[in-house]
Each structure stands twice: as C-alpha cells, then as structure tokens.
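User: I'm putting together a small comparison set for a docking exercise, and I want a reference complex before I start. The sequence is below, and the ligand is arginine. Could you produce the 3D structure with the ligand included, as structure tokens?
Assistant: Of course. I'll restate your input first, then give the structure tokens for the complex.
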Amino acid sequence: MKKKVKKILLAYSGGLDTSVSIEWLKDKYGAKIYAYSADVGQGANWQSLKEKALNTGAEKVFIDDIQDEFINNFAFKALKANALYEGKYPLATALTRPLIVQKMVEVCERENIDAVAHGCTGKGNDQVRFDVSFRTLAPELEIIAPLREWEFKSREEEMEYAKEKNIPIKVTKESPYSIDSNLWGLSVECGKLEDPWEEPPIDSYQWTNAPENTPDEPYYLTLTFDQGVPIKLNNQHLSPVEIVKNLNSIGSKYGIGRIDMVENRLVGIKSREIYEAPAATILINAHEQLESLTLDRETLHFKKTITDKYAEQTYFGLWYSPLREALDAFVESTQKQVTGIVKMKLYKGHCSVVGRKSPYSLYQYEMATYDENDRFEHKSAPGFIKLWGLPTETYARVNRENKDTLFLKDYVK
Ligand code: ARG
C-alpha cells in the first residue's frame, strides 16, 4: 500500500517517460498530478509542452524561466571555481538539478503539494541530485521516482501501457541517444556511444561543427571579467545569459567544447558520455588564465585543489552541503582581483588564450625581463637557494652512509 499523498509535483520534460508517469502516478497513488518544467535554455516549445502535459492528464502545468538564476547562481559559481568533473565535464546537467529542486519546493509550498516525482532511473546520478536536494530543502515531501519502481522493461511496454490507458502519445522516431541540454552544455549518452571504443557518430553531436568542417580562418574574441564574472564580450556589455548564448553559438561554429569521456558515476559504474559545452569551455579557459595573471602563487596552487572537490560535490548531488558552501566562500574571496581582459583565438576545435591584461596583474615586466630593464636582484638568489635546499641537503648529508635504505643509493657512489 502506497503512502497516501494528495498532490504530486512531477518534474516534467515532455518525453515518453514523464508523459507515461502522469497516468502511472495517478493510477498508483490516486493523486492529482501537477507538471513542472524549467526553462534552462534547452529551447523547448513551451506552449506545446504545456498542452501535452494537460492532454496527458496533468491538473496544472508550471513553467519557470530560470535561465538568469541558473547562470548567475550556479554556472558562474562553478566558473569561478573552474569546476570540471574528472578534469573534463563542466557539469551542465549536474548544476541544474539543485536549482530545479529549489523551484519545485517553492511551488509545493505555494500550492500545498505534498509529494514530488522525477523521471530519473535507478542507476544515474540525477536521481541522487534530486533526492538529496529535496531531502535537504524540504524533508517533509514524499519523493517518488516512477522509473525506479514501475514494471515496464522497455519503451514498447511503456507504449503498450499508454495505449491501454488512452494516453495520447505520438509515436515519434526514437532518437538513439539520451540528451539533456541547457545553457551550460549538452550531455549525450546511449546508442553507439555505449561502446567506449566506438568514435562518436556524426549525428551524436548536436551543437558543434566537427573541427574538420570549421572555417579555415581563426576567430579572435575578447572577454572582460569583473571579480571572476564575465561582463563583456568583444568589449560589449551583455547580460550573463547573453554572453553564454553568444559564446555557445560562436564556439559551435569553430567546433569548440566537444568532450568525449568515460566517467565514474556516483552509483559505482563507469559510463561513456559525450558533452558539448562551447561557452563553458571558452569561459573556464579564459577565467583560469586571468587567475594565472592575478592570483599569487600560493593561492593559485591551493585553489587548484579546491577545483576538484567543488566539481565532485556538484556531481555527487551535494550542492547544498556545508562543504560546497564553505568552498564557495573560499573561491569567492579569491575573486576580488580576477578582473581584466582575456584575448582568445578559436580555431579548428581549439580555443587558446593568446593575451591577458589586468589592473591587478602580478606580472611585473621589470622582474621578468632579460633585457636592460631587468630589476631582479640576481645576487639574492644564492642565499635563497642555500636555505631553500637546506632540509634536503641536510637529510642527504646525515644519511649518506646509509646507502641501502635510501633514495640516494641510486645517485651516490
Ligand atoms: N553524466 C552526466 C551527469 O551525471 C549527464 C547525465 C544526463 N545525461 C543525459 N544524456 N541525459 O551529470
């Protein structure tokens, strides 16, 4: 016997799974189903999505445009941290989940809804992100994941059920891929991609030109950052969302931001996925290079250790953890001087920083130069080196005789 719930807010995408979920939830729980969709820049047809949800049995449909919030409070925080999961994935899918949950919780409070549902399967990362975020923000809500529970083993069985229940579902040509997209990037899995030896088929990439089909001339652009946040593209003030949209389109033209990786999922398995993240790739690269110019060595090196942890917390569904917040506080405090301009060159799938400047630049020409303007105190170097190497030198002297047990045995006769 299922727990009695009266109203369920379903995270709804309009795909087969969530469409069938509406009727299945009604059936199993005898509850009213409300559909929730978030506009994170995936470019859906919202009017037809709304109609579809109502036609397939939803009581009401809520559509939120959360693009600005997503970029400002999630993607750009990840940008300031240079967050890439396993050094590669800019976390597009992972970053939307905590915000979608926050918004769904708001709707539940407003509409007196006592349960939430999502279309995640039992072996993905997204179920963890949804569930942990719900349990953190609104522990009173019942969480239901039809795909973890229901009896259907294939798309055909789902369609059969839809037919039986008179759910009006158009039979569309099934894409071999599972695709999730938002402004920060696009994630593609399944189909031929499930063989990690197989090169991603041409049709698996959705946004970007293949590098071999990109223009033969490079494209130069400048990005202006203010305290770690991009504020201008090619010297033109644009909103955060506009900057990301523009970079996605320019980057796609030049084949930037294709990522093909085998990653470690939270639930213990490895999976192969490809990503397209032109804007995120360009911005993270530019931001990192501006930090190289403006952060002192110790902070810069220490911050690199934070980057991995930040990405992991995000990927692992722990956005609302105290650690992620503490890491954010650290990252934020490093960004005060990350202000300046970066010049980039896009060419055949690569984007490289070819120039950078900042009022807070710690690069001092008269320290770095080898010409007559050199002001570096060469004479201080021997004293510095003597003390710098003192611990190592001492260790070696004390242990010189003890050749068998020491690392020195390979070097000292
Ligand atoms: N593996 C990525 C993550 O866990 C993306 C998951 C969604 N991918 C998809 N093709 N639907 O964040």
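Residues 39 and 65 are 5 Å apart (CA to CA). The mean pLDDT is 95.
User: Thanks, that's exactly what I needed.
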